[in-house]
Every structure is written in structure tokens, then in C-alpha cells.
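Researcher: Let's try something more involved. This one mixes different molecule types, so please make sure each is placed in the same coordinate frame as the others.
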Amino acid sequence: MNTVAKILGNKLLALTVLISVGVSLLVVPAFTGGLGANPLEKLLHQSGEIAIWTLGAVLALSPLRVLLPRSRIVAALNRHRRALGVSACIYGLLHFGFHVLYEGGWDGLLRGLSKPFIWFGLSGLSILVVLALTSNNWSIRTLGGKNWKLLHRLAYVAAAVLICHQAIAGKGHWQIARWLLFPLAALQLARLIKTAVREKRRSTALPSVAKQVARDIESSVAGAASRRLPESASDRSQRSPMQQARANENRRCLHPA
Amino acid sequence: MKNWKETRAWELPDSAVLRESQYLRRREFLRLFGYGLAASAVLPVTMRAASAGFPDSLNPSFKLEGVKLTPEDSITSYNNFYEWGFAKDEPKKLSNKGWKTEPWTLEIGGLCKNPRKIDVNDLIKLVGGIERRNYRHRCVEAWSMVIPWDGFQLAKLVDLAQPNPDANYVKFTSFFDPEHCPGQRSNDLPWPYTEGLTLPEAMNELAFVAAGLYGKPLRNQNGAPVRLVVPWKYGFKSAKSLVKIEFVSDRPKTTWNELAPNEYGFYANVNPNVDHPRWSQASERVIGAGFFSGKQPTLMFNGYEKQVAHLYTGMDLRKNF
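Model: All components are placed in one shared frame. Result:
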């Protein structure tokens, strides 16, 4: 379990996976005739699919962390939120580029502005661009953790808008979009239920004075724990300076929710 | 009817359409074609049936002068046939895993004097064989092809059946075989697929029953063994793999119209001025035209205005889309 978590937590590996998804679905088929009779449409759809599923992956990570707080695998995967989010934006921009090529001129592009699916797509992509541009430690420091977190909650808005974009962009697209919408909604619901149950148990179990104290302690502990990979004191003492530096960097990395 | 050729802005000379080698050999091709035509007259009519492939017997009225035919490979690999799956490449993959389209019986019935159940090969013999027509094909999803269909005019079938005076519509029903057909095991669409035309539409010279394309029997993914082809309407009107053709008095339920009546009308005539509520219909992507080709303007009634506009005179095409 530890080794699996360690491998899954490897940032270089994650980056390789995120790039090779694009290479295998966009670049390789382009050179092997795998794009079919309408190659540009295939690229348009594939890039959009990659973008939205990558975004979906980021948004699945936070509820998973609440639902499985002790899972090392979930903790390891949570290290890749920034890479996932930025990739979603990059694939989204590619998707936009393919759309421009597909329309092939101002006529089609301008005509498209009268269609809601274009508004949804553009607004979702704009959010992703803002979030990607502020996905760095400098932005977190400048904005302050609280503001940054609030800003990055827009990822949920982006997902909602983009799933809508996908569902209405073509004939039969809802049948594709639902495969992302339902699991994401189920995860969020499960997380809300778990949080609510925990709150209730706490408020009934503790007398009112102790309650606030306990909540303060717990939230600070939970907050700190969520920013760290679970590890024991002995692990920490055996770390090299490089590992120590990397761990510190992880701790600085905030999560949107 | 005009007997001169009107050149349109989008037309190309044959030399631009054919590969150089083909262009240089066009006379040789015409000579061979002549022999083929002569031979087809001598050959027994059974040789022209659905399963045997078809002699090249292009009807010159439907040559579509100067328009480039879509490559056969594209026509047979890029299909909307939701019975097999939503992706364009799924019909080819999934419809060729043991789904039998021969022998195939077509039922012709409803309000007519000569109802019958007939084997598709026999039907083709009965209507006098097969002709080739090059038709534009415009999908409601804003892409288009040009397809050399082999088949017969739907009016011939209507004449065989002799509809009663109270028959106002023709209803077309596709096959239902959930055992072989993965898409039909879910109820995303109300199966079987049904479509309909008014009787005058069905009698129009353009309305066609295809049994092949590029001289070969229809591939399963294209709607084997027989399908409807109504080139002035969006592709979804051209129901595939027909098992039943009925004459009815009231407007029949049609699949996409039933599913989303505000998006897919009963008429579904190609019209660049009436958008689909979710996307534009003003232009179309030509399949096989190349990566940087952009879109070309869509033509009213898909370029068949002369032949069909009279069917809709006085009708508000925005309401009756």
C-alpha cells in the first residue's frame, strides 16, 4: 500500500500521464489515420473530453479526501491537484483552438455566439484560465490563503457550466455528459452527508462550552493534516534535505475545498 | 425543365475532382462503362439483386455535375446509427459481428390495395432493378457527404402497393433486434426507429430506396439491406434497415421528433435559415474535404429546391421545420 501510494504520489509520473493522455488521443491517431473520416471533429471532441474529465478528476479528489481521510492513495493523488487543474485548462484551450479551426472562419465563429453552448464553453474556459494563471505559490501568497481558496472554488462553477456545455453541444451529447455529472454529483452529496453527520454527532455529544474548543482544535488539526501526506515521526527523521524541502512545498500548497 | 447546365459557385471541373490518373483515363472508363451497361441489359435480372452488387447504371439526371463524391471508406466508417452506439465509428465495428441482413423480409402494408411481405431481392426485381444516383447528404449535425446510392425510386414501391385514398402519410419502421444490437438494449431512444413522409413527399422523384452504394450492397453500418434516402431532408429522416413500410391516414410518430419535438421537426427539411435551437444550420463541414477547409454554406433544401420547394408552398418553414 505504501509503495503504491508513493508511486501514485510521484509528480513526474503524474505529469507524464497527463501529457501522454493527450499524445495518445490527439497526436498518435493524427499520424496513424486513427482520427476517422472527420479528423478535426475527432480532435475537437477528444480534447474537450480530456479537459472535462481532467477537471472532473480534480473535483473528485476533495470529496474523496473527506470520505476516505485515512487512505494513503487518496492523499497521494491529492498531490496532483495543481497539475490536473492546469492540464484541464491547457486541453480546454486546445479544444477551443480546434473549434476555431473547425468553423474555419469568422462567419461560423460569430454565428456561434448566438448559441448558448458557446457561452457555456467560453465562460467555463475563462474560469479555467484564471484558475490556471493563479495556480502558483506566488498567487497564493499574494491573494492570501482564504481569498485564493474562495477564488478556486470557481472550479465547481466551471465544471457545472462545462458539463452543461458538453450536454447541449450536439445531438446525443447528454448521453455522454451524464457519465461525468452523476458520479461527481454523487461524490459531492456523499461528502455533504458525511460532513453533516459529523457536525451533528459533535453537537449532541459535547456540552456547549467544550463544543467550541473541540471544534477549534479539530479544525486546526484537520486543516494541518489535510495539507500533509500522512507520515510517521520516524519517516520524517529519515528524510534527506531534498525530501524535506519537497514536503515543505507540499504543505504550502493549499486546496480549494 | 431547363436543358442547359447552370454553373454554381461551388462547382468544380471534372479535372479538379478526379485524380490525375483517373482524369487521363476518363475516356477508357467511359468505354468500359458502355460495355458494362450493354452487359447489364443481357444479364439475368437476378444478378442485380441486393446481394449481388450492382452494375454501374448512373441515372444522368442525378449525376450532380462537378461535385466530388465522398470516399467510400468515409461513408462506411462515419455513421450515425444509434442502434449500435453513439460514436460514429461504433456502427461499423458492432454491426458486423454476426448481425444477418440476408435473407430479409420487408413488409408493405397499411392502407393500400396490395399489401405484401416480400424478400428484399424479390422486391428489387419487381420494381425493375437498380439505378445509381449521386445525392447530397446533409446531417442535422452540420456535416455533409455526397453519396453514390444504388437503389430505386420510392414511387415505384408506392405504385406497387396502390395506397387507398385515405392514406396521407407513409410510415417507415426500422428493424428491432436487441439480441444483436447493443444500442437497442437501452431505452435512450424509443425503439424501433420510425420515420415518416407525407404521401406527396414519398411520390417525389427524389425519394429513394437505397440497397447499395458505390456499386456494392449496403454495408450493415449504412442500413443494410434497404434504407430510405430523402436527400432534401436531414439525414435522420432517411431511416435505415427497413422492415416495414405502411400507408397511414394520420401523421405517424417519428423517433427524433418524439424525443425532442422542439429540436427535430417532422419535416426536417434542410434549411440554412432555420437553426437547430442549439447550433447553426447555415453551413456544413464536408466530410473528406481536408483539415483546413472550414465549412461550406448549406443550400436551401440541400440544393434540391427546384425539385421539392413546391411541396411546401404557403407553409411557414419556421414553424414547420
